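Example 3.2
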Amino acid sequence: MTSTRIRSLGALSAIALLGTLVAGCSTDESAQAADPTESTSTPEREYDFSAVEPVVEAFLAEHGLDGAGLVVVDEEDGIVGERYFGGFDADRVSLVASASKMVTAGVLVRLADQGLLDLDRPIAEYVDWAAGHHPEITVAQLLSNSSGLVGLLPNPAYGPYVCQFVPTVELEICAASAWSTPADDADIAPPDTEFRYGGVQWQIAGAVAETVSGRTWDELLQEIYVEPCGLESLGYNNHWTQIGDGLSGYPTEFGGDPSRLAPTENPHLEGGLYIDPLDYAELLLLHLRDGRCGDTQILEPESVELMHTDRVGATYGGETQTGTGYGFGWWIDRSGSTRINDPGAYGAVPWLDLGGRFGAYLVLEASAQLGLELAGQLYDPVEAAITAAR
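Structure, written as tokens:
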């Protein structure tokens, strides 16, 4: 069963869809003057995403899933379609696991745009606790999983870095202890020689952000994303050991309610984001609109392009586990497609088509395998609907 809802979200107004995932349209020439950078404007073109409905419904039935959400965005028209299935709706807040990474990376890139750090200079130049250890590691290496520190795979419970999953410590204390411990010496690779996905390197990046800005992670989120983009649901926590078995499957005890998680000063920065579908869609629009949310230039256009560039391939000819490239929080297709994505372990799959200037956010509360499988079935019908509307 499918459902739709109208939702007002600060400067954002979601489009109600009746029976199909169709955005409101206007053929009146006077509507041509509407500001295309505002997601509140009524799209001038008709978008019909009805072809996605049977695909999603069949997939949910086949795998016994409770529901899903899909929001589609266009660079010019903003949010052009939203559809919710089963128990999902526009206000459902979900934990998105590694779909956090592009959001986290954006905070560091913003600080670089402000001149508070240089992504390619050693972080030991910026933080006292980094002095004397790993003198060559940079923020760019941390954000591209290329620092040489031990990654999340194949052992997420790697002993010297276990503080990344502990909500009762402080972010900088965790980062400093992982940075300086001699217990990982035999397992570290030289930076920019291996792709090692995830891990404590993302906590270290977050601690650098707090140190150079003089603000907490939450304060940075408010300043960079929440206020200029009119978001209401975005937040980070360190949920992995707080509720359910968050390391092996979606913690259903979360129930879309962040208040079930104890506040923490150690947010899990590669996988602790929680957010609702429309707020995540606004973040995708930021990337499509060269770093702008509304009238605010959050990231410089060249910085957005940098995030979308295969740094792993360009810098050291690196190979990821999936054969794709990797930028700052984004997996980059090396097959010639202009599609990039940032999927998470729980089945959230945001993607952008940089050539077509559109994107989508699919959210399940299941597994990475199922999220990627369903996203793979939706790429073509979503693109076809965008192309037809143009």
